[in-house]
Specification:
By secondary structure, the protein is mainly β. Helices cover 13% and strands 35% of the residues. It contains three helices and 15 strands. The chain has a six-stranded mixed barrel. The longest helix has 25 residues.
Length: 257
């Protein structure tokens, strides 16, 4: 390559390198928060919750989970998101230095306005707080600490198998629980199309439960799901025409990490 051509390409090379470094820097950014724990040594007390996942063992979320303060929970829009959390060892003697854990948001830690945000009201706005399942907490901090300062960042969710759809509700009020979402982990929008009906938008009912007011019983159902990461996937006839309320159907499709 001649010298003039090499010099002419240099600004583009520098710009590309700068862009990569900026992206890497964004991924490495950490935010400050605090963390406590709940649910017992087997995390059985974390089942259910404001996201609607129900039995976290069965639904695949396990014990590395957390209830988020309302500032993070965002009225359920954060359900399913994954966070890498580490104890801030520079600010606490109770940290397990060098350790981190990835937790999934499965519940809301509600505010307690009878207590100060600095004295028991850990989940009061505008605090960024993680009430972690006890087994997750013990991976980063000592049990007797009770509460520790943490550093956290969003991280892609890694899942096994495809996205799952659980049918609930009743005819003319279908409630669909969407779980096992990889990538951003959380869902921004959903539409449904029955084999005999047109495509229609669904509404977030609560947590990760989305509802439709159409009569869809007896129809095969296709869903379109848009993640908060901006990726939209279509799940053709993922729910067969013979579906019943209470059944769960696993797709062969998954969001990218």
């Amino acid at each position: 390559m001649d010298v003039h051509r090499a010099l002419s390409l240099l600004p583009f090379v520098v710009a590309a390198a700068a862009s990569r470094f900026a992206a890497a820097g964004a991924e490495d950014e950490w935010s400050k928060g605090t963390a406590t724990f709940y649910g017992g040594g087997d995390a059985s007390g974390t089942m259910g919750g404001a996201c609607g996942y129900g039995n976290l063992y069965w639904s695949g979320y396990g014990t590395n989970t957390a209830a988020l303060s309302s500032a993070l929970f965002n009225d359920g829009r954060a359900c399913g998101e994954c966070y890498r959390v580490t104890c801030d060892h520079g600010a606490s003697q109770w940290c397990l230095q060098g350790k981190s854990v990835t937790v999934t948001a499965t519940n809301l830690c509600p505010p307690n306005y009878e207590l100060s945000g600095d004295d028991g009201g850990w989940c009061n706005p505008p605090r960024h707080h993680f009430d972690m399942a006890q087994p997750a907490w013990l991976q980063i901090a000592v049990y007797k600490a009770g509460i520790v300062p943490v550093l956290y960042q969003r991280t892609p969710c890694v899942k096994q198998g495809g996205v799952r759809f659980t049918m609930a509700g009743a005819n003319n009020f279908e409630l669909v629980l969407i779980t096992n979402v990889a990538g951003s982990g959380s869902v921004k929008a959903v539409w449904v199309k029955g084999s005999n009906t047109d495509r229609m938008a669904m509404s977030r009912n609560w947590g990760v439960n989305w509802h439709s007011l159409a009569g869809l019983v007896g129809q095969a159902l296709t869903f379109g799901v848009t993640s908060t990461g901006g990726q939209t996937l279509v799940f053709p006839d993922v729910v067969p025409a013979w579906w019943k309320f209470g059944q769960t159907f696993t797709s062969g499709i998954q969001f990218s990490n």
